[in-house]
Structure formats: structure tokens, C-alpha cells
Amino acid sequence: MKKIIAILVILSLFLLGCSTEVVEEEPTVEEQIDEVQAVVEEAIEETETEPIVEEIQVDESIIEEPVVKANTEELLDGTTTKPETTTGTTHLVEVNLKGFDPATITIKAGDTIQWENVRSGNLNKVLIVGSSPCTKSRSAILMPGETYSWTFEEPVKCVFTDAIAITQLMKVIVE
After folding, report:
1. By three-state DSSP, how is residue 33 classified?
2. What is the pLDDT of residues 103-121, one digit of tens each?
3. How many Cα atoms occupy the beta-carbon half-sphere of 71 within 13 Å?
4. How far apart are CA 88 and CA 64, in angstroms?
5. Which of 66, 106, 109, 114 could be cross-linked to 173 through a Cys-Cys bond (beta carbons 3.0 to 4.6 Å apart)?
6. 0.70 exceeded by the pTM?
7. Domains of the chain, with CATH numbers?
């Protein structure tokens, strides 16, 4: 009887060793972070290599001096006023557990983006960080309900990330 049990144990070990089934492992946190960093670096390189302003060849012999008109309006009593300047639009972006909403936004120069932390649960903090050329845009750590705003003064393309949950990216295009 002992011989039969020993033979069965050896046979089962042999069959298990010959199994061709491959078990895929889940990526580790470090591997996920490396993958996200590669995506962020690729996005940064993409924005750095795309020309923002095209150079134009100008024949300087035909340039005329511009005529500058005063930006004022004369009233009936002889006084002048300057017209009111309009401010840009404010665009709201929510930062939730799934990422930025919207993840890509196109705005005009002079517009402002206001990020609002709408997260709840254990991962409820947000840190907005802009990549080149928007590296000056960096929020403090935002708790749920808090906001951070940034006004884009000139045309640019930037990638923003949540530095706490670095798997979340947002692309901003300013025209």
C-alpha cells in the first residue's frame, strides 16, 4: 500500500511539473510607476518637440510703420474713456478618483482653468503639477472641495498630472 501511495505522489509531481499553463503575474506598484513615468516623459517630449510658434521669413524692405490709434472713446463733453477690458473664461476641471474631467481641454489665451478636488475615500488629496513649458503651474495639496486656478496668458501646449496619483494626466491646449 505504501508503494502505491509513493508511486501516486511521484506521478502527480511529474504531471504537475509537465503542465504548460502559464500564470501571468500582476505588475507590481514599482512597474506601474515606471510605466506611468514613461508615459509622462513621452508626453513631455512630445510637447517640447512640437513647435509652438513658426518662424516666418519677412522681407524687411516692405515693412511699413504701423499706425497706432489710441484705445479711447471721446464723449460728448470732451472727456475720454477707455473701453472695459474683457477677462478670459474660467473652465472648471474636476479631479476625481478616475482622473481629470475633462482629460483634454482646448482654451484661448487669457482663459483660466480651475481644478476642483471632488475625491472621497482614502485617496482624497490632489497635487496639480504642470510639465514643460507650464512648470510654474503647481498647486498646494488640495483637500476635497478645494480648488486651484491658473491663467494661461499665451498659446502653449502642456501636460498636467496629479502628483499624488501619478497615473492621471491631462492635456491643455491654449490657442
Report:
1. helix
2. 999 999 999 999 999 998 8
3. 4
4. 32
5. 106
6. no
7. 88-175 (2.60.40.420)
